[in-house]
Design goal:
By secondary structure, the protein is α/β, with parallel strands linked by helices. Helix content is 30%, strand content 30%.
């Protein structure tokens, strides 16, 4: 099934316009008049729609719809990387893996602090359409490590990855979990000490090799999904 994203889609809509933002995407997918396409609103609604083409306008007749329950709270807190593409790659994969929140983190070893919310949101929407995920992750403004540490105290569990960590553990769907990833070069000694002082921190083993930040993020997210009790 091919998907497009229309954030304005509401549960009681019968016919909606695809809008200019999705016309090109529908062309790339080679969606023809009369085909059925899935429409996501990023708020849990998935609608199956019949396509009606009229020159450069596309109308979508809703034939069926379903609402997907909001997933367990899963926040990715990740240090900004010098390479923008690598950080955005991690965000895309995190979206496919079902994160609900993304927090860009400014750490001691972060060099690049520029952040384009519009660009990141476009990457997230593209990943949403690719995966068929019904819920659009919320992206926070970049936050300094010292501020985020205080916020982490409110989570049920804070997961970090180390080569000598413990095997991944099971979580309940009611847990509010944050997965925390450092920037290039990892967290500074001071930051590592602050994380270790949190009483809700768990350290997972993610292999013997030294992983890039985006690889560590994907590894921990995949481990979480294989151990969450739904």
């Amino acid at each position: 099934m091919d998907y497009i994203y229309l954030g304005s889609l509401e549960p009681d809509d019968a016919i909606v316009d695809a809008g200019q933002s999705e016309l090109k995407h529908l062309d790339v997918l080679r969606i023809r008049d009369g085909d059925v396409v899935g429409v996501l609103n990023g708020r849990g609604l998935i609608a199956m729609c019949r396509v009606s083409r009229n020159k450069r306008r596309i109308s979508l007749q809703i034939e069926s719809r379903r609402v997907v329950a909001k997933p367990p709270s899963l926040t990715l807190v990740m240090g900004l990387l010098d390479n923008r593409d690598r950080w955005e790659f991690a965000v895309e994969k995190a979206t496919e893996l079902g994160v609900t929140n993304i927090v860009p983190l400014i750490c001691d070893r972060v060099q690049r602090r520029q952040f384009s919310r519009d660009r990141v949101n476009q990457k997230i929407i593209a990943a949403l359409k690719q995966s068929g995920n019904a819920w659009l992750p919320q992206v926070a403004e970049p936050v300094f490590f010292s501020q985020q540490v205080e916020l982490l105290k409110s989570f049920s569990k804070v997961v970090v990855g180390e080569a000598d960590g413990d095997p991944p553990m099971s979580f309940s769907e009611t847990d509010n979990v944050a997965i925390v990833i450092g920037p290039e070069g990892g967290f500074s000694v001071q930051e590592t000490d602050q994380l270790s002082l949190l009483t809700n921190t768990v350290v997972w083993r993610i292999g013997n090799n030294r992983l890039r930040s985006e690889t560590a993020a994907i590894s921990l997210l995949a481990a979480f999904h294989s151990h969450v009790s739904l």
